[in-house]
Fold these 4 entries.
Entry 1:
Amino acid sequence: MGRTRWAIAGGVLALLLVVGALFLWRGDGGSETTGVPLPAPVGRSDGDPFAARSDGAVPAPPGSPAEAATAFLDAEVAGDVEASFPHLSADDRADHVDAAGWFEDHADIWTPTSYRLIDVRDDGDGAATATAAVELQPQIDQFAGLVPARATLTLPLVQEDGGWRVAFSDGSYAPEYPDEAGAVDAVRAWAEARTRCETAAQWDADLLDSPYLADSLCGADGELRLGRPDTLDVLDDAGAYLDDFGTRAADWARVVPVEGPVALDAVAAPLGDSWVVIGTSPRGTSGSRP
C-alpha cells in the first residue's frame, strides 16, 4: 500500500475511519489478468499493516527489458530473494515491504526451477512484456492450490529510475497440464489398489467429498470398468472440490467414472507429469457417462 503518514489533527474518529477504509481497500481483489494470477502480497508476518518500511533507494541497473527480466528470473531460480527484490517495481516493493516479506508472500506458490525467455515486447510509454516458459515445483494442497510443473509466464515490466523493473503482481501464467488420458490410468491404478485394501496414485491428504466410497472398494470382487475423463460439471455437487481449491479446480480436475463392485466418480488432479486421486463422489447424473 505504500507508506502512510497519519496526521494527528483528525482526531480518533477520523483515524478509525481511515483505518477501516484501508482494510476495505486491501480486501478488494482488483481486476484479473489472463491466466492464473501470480501470488499477491499477504502482509508482514507480524500482521501489522503499519509496520516500518525501508526508505532506502533501491538502485535499478540500466539496460533493456530483456536484461531486467533475465536478471529477475535468474535470481528467482537461484532462490535469492535479496537479489530479485530490487528488480520489482516500486508498487510491488511497497506491497512486500522488504526481501523477507517478498519471500514470505510468494515462495510457497511460486518456486521456479528453470526458465527460457521466449519473447520481450516493447509496449511503448515505458512499458514492456516478457514471456517465458518456466518450470515450477509442482504441488497440490488446500493452501497453495495446484501449482503445475510447467507454465507460460507473462511478466509486465515498467521503466523506473532510468532502468526497467518487473511488475510481478500484474503478471500471470498459463499452466500446462499433462494429458488427461493419464487421469484414467491413475484412477485405474488407484481403484485396483483399493480393492486390495492398499493405496496407490492418491494424494497425501484425506480424500475429499465421500471417502466412504473408496473404503467400500476394500476387498470388493468384480471387474472394474472406467469411463472417459470429464470435468467437474458432471458431478451433482462439486462443492467439496471448489470450496477447497476455488473455481480454478474446474479447469484442471478430471472426473473418471468407475463401475463394478462399487459405482463412484473418482476425481483426479495433475501433479507434475502424473495424476493423483483427490476425492470420490457419488455417481453424477449429468454430462457424458460411460
Note: The CA atoms of residues 114 and 135 lie 5 Å apart.
Entry 2:
Amino acid sequence: MTPSIGWDIDTFGHSDTNTRLFSEMGFDAMFFSRLDHNDKKWRSENEAMTFLWRPGSNHFGKQHQILTYVWPFDYCYPEGFYSGESYSTDDEFVGDPTLTSFNADEKMTKFVNYIQVDSAKRKGSHILVPMGCDFAYQNARNEFNAVQQMVDYINEHNSANMKLIFSTPSDYVKAVEQEKITWPVRYEDAMPYGEFMNDYWSGYYSSSPNAKK
C-alpha cells in the first residue's frame, strides 16, 4: 500500500520543494501545525487554513499541488480535553448525570465552540480535531473508551447540527473532495518559521553553531 498523506505535524518550517517531493511520492495531502504566526493569523481570518499548495507553479503548473491542512492551535487535544495517564491537567468527560462529577454539558459546550471556531478558519463542512498528543494512549483501551463516551454524548445532545466520528486524514480528504471546494492557493515556502514575534527558528536548519547562537 502506498502512503498518500504527509503527516508532518511538528516540523519547524516547510519548504515548497519538500511539498513537491511529497507530491512526486504520490501524496494527496499534508497535515501540520507549525506555521509562521503572521501567516497563520491571516489564514485564520480568511478561511485559508486549508489550502492547495502549488510548488514550482512557474515550471509545473498544477502538476504537483497537494491539499494542505494546518491546525489553528496545536497538534494536541483541544484545550480542556487533555486526558489519559500521561495528562492529568483536565477533568475527564463524565456523562452520567447521577454523579456529582457530571460535566458533560459544560464539556460539550466547550468542544462545540472549538469546532465552530476552527470551522470559521477554513472552507468546507468537515474539520479534523486532534484527540491525542505526545505520549498519549499509553492505556489505549481506557482512552479510546473515554473519547467514545464523549463522541456519543455530544452526537446525542448537541444542538449545533454537527456529528462527531472517529476519522483519519485520508477520510477527511475523501470527504472534502466530494464537496468540490475552490480552495485558496499557496505557492511559496513556509519558512522561516516564527512561533511568536521575535521567536524564529531559522537556525534550526543550520549546522553552524554561530548561526544557531
Note: The beta strands are 5-7, 29-32, 50-53, 66-70, 185-186, 194-196, 199-200.
Entry 3:
Amino acid sequence: MAEPVIQTHQLTKVFYHPFFYWKVRARAVTQLDLNVSRGEVFGLLGPNGSGKSTTIKILLGLLFPTSGQAAVFGKRPTDVPTKTRIGFLPEESYLYRFLDAEETLDFFGRLFSLPAIERRRRTDMLLEMTGLSRERHRPLAEFSKGMTRRVGIASSLINDPELVILDEPTTGLDPLGTREVKDLILELRRKGKTVLLSSHLLSDVEDVCDRVSILYGGRARAEGRMQDLLRREDRAQITAPMDEALAREAVAFLRGRLGDGADIVLQPPAERLENYFLRIVREAQAQRAVTSGVGGGTGGQLDFLTEKAVDEAEGLLDRLRLGSEEAPPAEDPGAGVRLSGEGEALQAAGGLLADLASGQRDADAAREADKAEDALASAEDDRQPNASLLEQLGRKE
C-alpha cells in the first residue's frame, strides 16, 4: 500500500498566554489522526474555530505542533524541498496589488525557477482557465474579491504541485466561478493529484470530495467516505416518468404496504439552482452579451499538469538540504546550470520580481525568449545552488 500523502498521529496544538505560559488560551487541535491517500480529494470540515486552519498551517510547516506527529510525503512539514511539491491557496489572497494578473503569475513562476518560455505558457493557460485573459494587464488593485481569488487559485497551480491545499477556495466567487473551481478539483483528481479542501460550503464539498473529516473543538467527530456518511438505509428514492394518475396509484400502493401513517413525500424532481443559473449564463455567453466582468473559463484544462507523481525525483530531493554545498548534475552536459543570489540582482529588480530559486535553462532558448532577464542573469552568478531541481519537477509532463 502506498504511503499516505498526509498523515497525522495524535496531533495536538495548544496556544498559551504570551506572558503566563502555563495558562492555556486555546486548544486548537486535540489528538487529530488523518490519513490522506494519493489521488484523493479530502474535505476538512467544521465550524469557525474548529481547528481546520491550524491543521493546515501545521502541515505547511508554518506552525509547530505541541505534541503528536505530522508528515507530508513521508517527511516533516518543515522539510524545505518537500514544499516544492505543494500548491497552497490561503483563505485570504495576499497578493501584490500593484502587479497585474500576468505579472503575478510570472512572479510565482520565478519563485519555482521556471524558464521564461514555460512561465509564459503556463500563465496563458491559467489565465484562460480562470477567465482572466482579457484582464491580464489590469492591476490587482482594480480587481474585485472574486477576480483576485481566481488569480490566487492560478498561482497555487503554477508549479504543477502533487498536493494542492485549498482553504475556502470559492470565497468571493460567483456561481460560475464556483462551478469552475469544482471542475478544476475533479480534473486534478483525474490527473492523480491529491487535494485537501477546507470549506464552509457543504454543497461544494459534497460534489467533489471522496472522504471528509468533520472537526469540532479541535477533535475529529466523524470521518469516512461521502456516500457512506450520507446514505439513509431506511429510505429509498425512485425517479420515474409518471402522470398524476400513476403517481396516485403509487402512493396508494405504498400506503397499503406501509400503513396510513407512513411518511410518504411525493414531489417532482427539481433542477438544482446552480445548474439553472449556469445554463442561463452560458446562454448569455453564447449570444456574446457584453460584460466588463470575468469571462468564461475553460473548466481547468491545463496541459502542463502531470498525470502522475514524480516519484523518480525523490532521491534528488533527499540530496537537496538547506545549506547544501553541491548541486545535482545536469542531465544534459551541454546545458549549464545558472546560479544566482540576492545581491545586485535584487536591487536591480527593485525587490518586485527577484529570483529566489535557480533552475536549469537551455541557454540559447532562454536568451532568445527572455532578453529582458539577461541583465539580472549576468549579476546572479553567486546564487545558492540548493534549489536547481525545482524546474525539473515543474516541467515534467
Note: The mean pLDDT is 74.
Entry 4:
Amino acid sequence: MKEWIKKILQGWDIYHPLQSFYRTSILTIQKLVYRTLYIKYKGKGFTCNVCRYVYEKFVSDMPDKLNRDAITKYKVIAGYGKNIICPNCLSTARERLVLAFLYETELENKKVLHFSPEKNIYNYLKRHAIVTTADLFPRFYKTIDKKISKVDATSIDFDDEQFDIVIACHIMEHIPDDKAAMQEIYRILKCGGKAILQVPYSENLLYTVETPGINEPELQQKLYGQKDHVRIYALHDYVDRLKFTGFEVQIVSYPELKHLYNNAIQKKECFLKISKPMT
C-alpha cells in the first residue's frame, strides 16, 4: 500500500480495522484452499499440536523477493521455510513451538500478559489462565480479543510484579529501544516468572545488525528483511541483552528439540527459556 494512502486511512481512523478485515479474509480463503489442496497428504507424517491433524507435509512459507536478500545473506531463522503452516488450522511453526512449552507449563490461575497475540496461542491461554492482551496498535487484533489494550512495550502501564508469564514473540526486532522493553517486561514479571520472547536471529552474525534512527521502510526491508524491523539479532548478543537486563536465560538448542520435530517446528530454531530470578 502506498504510504500516502496509508496516512489518509490512518487519519480517518480506519486503517487498522481495514487491515484486520483484510487479513481475516485472506486467512479464511487460505484455509479453504489449503484444506482442499492438502487432502491427498492427510493421514501420516507431521502432527499439528494445535488441531491434531496429520499431514505428510505442511505448507511452505518463503520470504518474498524484497525480504529474501537480508534473510539469506545473514542466514536468519525468521519463521520461513518448508512445513511452516498447518493446512488445516493455519497454525505456524513458531506458534507450535511456543505451545509445546506452554503445554508443559502450569497455567491455572496464572496471570499472563500476551503482546501481539497469536490466535492459536491466545485461544489456548484463555482456557487455562487469566490473560491480558496488548499491542501498540490493538485494533489489528480485535478479531482475536475484543478486550485487547493499547500498551507500549517500552512504557508498560502495569505495576511491578503483576504477571506470572509475559509472552512477546517476534516484537523486539520492531522496537528501536529494545533495552527499555526488556526492562519493562522484567519489571512487571513476578520473581520466578517466565517470559517467552522469541525473535528472528542469526547464529552466523558476530554482532547484531542495526542502525539506530532508521525510519525508511524500503531501506529496512533491504537491511533487515522486513519493512518494519529495526535490526537482525545475533543470537548470542540477544541473549546477552536479556541477561544484562537481569533475566536468566537457557538456550534449548534445536537438536534438544528433537521430540518436537514431528510437530513441524521451525528448522534450526532454538527456544529460549527466560525467567526472572526468585530474588
Note: The longest helix spans residues 15-37.
